[in-house]
Amino acid sequence: MAEPRRAAILGCGGPVLTPEEAAFFAAANPWGFILFGRNVESRAQLARLTADLRAALGWHAPILIDQEGGRVARMAPPEWRGFPPALDQAASARAFWVRGRAIALDLAEVGIDVNCAPLADIALPETHPILRNRCYGTDAATVVANARAMADGLRAGGVLPILKHLPGYGRGTVDSHKALPRVAADAATLRATDFAPFVALCDMAMGMTAHLVYEAFDPDLPATVSPRMIDLIRTEIGFDGLLMTDDISMEALSGTVPERGQAALAAGCDLVLHCNGDLAEMQALAAALPPMTEAAQTRAARALAQRQTPQPVDIPALDAERNALPSA
């Protein structure tokens, strides 16, 4: 039996995989990779990079990207399709299906088969600007309908979705890339609002945690490294998909990067996501992380079993519909 993959998703430093990176990835054996703007130049270059990353591991490893459309788009116009921020998109499920299906066209063409979307966070008046217009609506029902449609559009195009940010980032009033957000809302309010979309979408195969403290449940630890919050995600929300951290190098978390990764796995996350491509930092992290647990391997296999050949689509008609969508 093959050795289990290491409980990590890693990035690389630039648009070309270096021999040093390839050797490290072959030895570290992460479950998959994530790409950012620093890795993206052109279609031909990106297709080469995804092929080289998989060759380093010797299997068709999942390759992720954050291609939400709007402000968060690692593959940008004019080379790739552009979209307005999600909250500015006409709030119809069809618009979000078209969005997902069109994004999947760009991703699948270059070998990217996992997208860090949809978001099920609810946009509230206090939501930090880093997140607010990336949200799919201002109430749970709208968010669920649009997130489900976005996920369906991605899957139809051969791209797997990742539900984020469990159990809800909408009340974050600071940017978790730079500091630790704290949520003071009471448990009943959180259950009725923030957590509700994730309950409705808990059947999705992959999800990503939020680096937020929910004081009503665990006043000390952000969800990513909180056993109480991961248990809540698993039991109360009912999410039994493959659960990865948000970027473990974000400044919302304390301790060294290896310590953060170990804490996330100890809390119950399946995978540690590391995004900045710093080789020394990844080497230290990989040395500290174990192989995936049996439960994580089962969830990962279940998620990857949903990979499919893109369904046929009339691309000119899809683009015409995308271009005709009104903004809110």
Note down, in words, how this protein is organized.
The chain is an alpha/beta fold and 328 residues long. The chain has 11 helices and 13 strands. The N and C termini lie far apart (53 Å).
Supply the key terms.
single chain, 328 residues, alpha/beta, six-stranded parallel beta sheet, three-stranded parallel beta sheet
From the N-terminal CA to the C-terminal CA, the straight-line distance is 53 Å
* Structural shape: globular
Instruction: Report the β-strand fraction as a percent range.
Output: 5-15%
How many runs of DSSP E, i.e. beta strands? Answer: 13
- pLDDT averaged residue by residue: 95
- Helix and strand content put the structural class at alpha/beta
Q: What fraction, in percent, of the residue positions are helical?
A: 25-40%
Tally of DSSP helical segments: 11
Along the chain, the helix and strand elements come as: EHEHEEEHEHEEEHHEEHEHEHHH
- Integer-rounded radius of gyration: 19 Å
The major beta sheet can be summarized as: 6 strands, parallel
Low-confidence stretches: none
Widest sheet: strand ordering:
7-6-3-2-1-13
- Assembly type of the shown chains? single chain
